[in-house]
Known about the structure:
The chain is an alpha/beta fold. The protein has helices spanning about 20-25, 30-45, 60-65, 65-75, 95, 105-110, 140-150, 155-160, 185-210, 220-230, 255-265; strands at about 55-60, 80-85, 160-165, 170-175, 180, 210-215, 235-240. The longest helix is centred in the C-terminal third of the chain and has 22 residues, at about 185-210. The radius of gyration is 17 Å and the shape is globular. Residues about 1-25 have low confidence and may be disordered.
Amino acid sequence: MRGHSLVKTGTNVKRHQVSRQTSAKRTNSLGGQLAHAARELSDSLSQIDFSRYADWVYNPLSYAWPAHQQYLERYAGKECKVVFMGMNPGPWGMAQTGIPFGEVNAVVDWLKIDAPIGKPDREHPKRPIEGLACKRSEISGRRLWALFAERFHTPSNFFPRHFVTNYCPLAFMEQSARNVTPDKLPSSVRQQLESICDQHLACLLGLLQPQWLIGVGAWAEGCACRVVENGHFDSIRVGRMLHPSPASPAANKNWSSTATRQLQELGVWS
Length: 270
């Protein structure tokens, strides 16, 4: 069913969302500044009409905002060295939890995120949003967060020097519920999306001041290179690690070891 653009604010989460006035009071902290930038990102993307290109659009920065805000305000570190950046939400990951690569068990058990999750105004019957109660596992997120947990043991060891984000916060689906990644959108609307997401990524890099921006996958790396070059972030180096998606045959052959080796070869990890 076409003719619908980006989902509006989730009806069940409005009462949980902090007001813009309250949000503004928190922008003195790094997490608060990132939260303010994320709200601006969400608002700007809501102005794009995706209805000709995607039957369904989920925006977890709307219906899962309290969880995303909790993540930003709890884990954004002023000593950040490495930013890992994925493409966009997976249907059983960030689309459910509001957290980048947000596999439910990792979000609940390791990150200890417990904020309420609402629902989009239009919910595909094959892609229901169950929030932190979702029983499906996002394999990409499970692999990524398991690697970090294995190497750093606790979030307090990982986050002061690392951060995880997605380039685009929106999930796109066809009527069949098949996922549509941003790189598959027609160039006209993709350029609008990239202009807004590039601006937000530049803001995030300016706030975090990392040494490394690691694209999780080739498309994310391309976006990273463009923003770093156009923003004249001369002190930031861009790298790439293998995406943990099970759709990649290489990722199904001991992805953790491959990703670790890639980061070590880059000089990101010792």
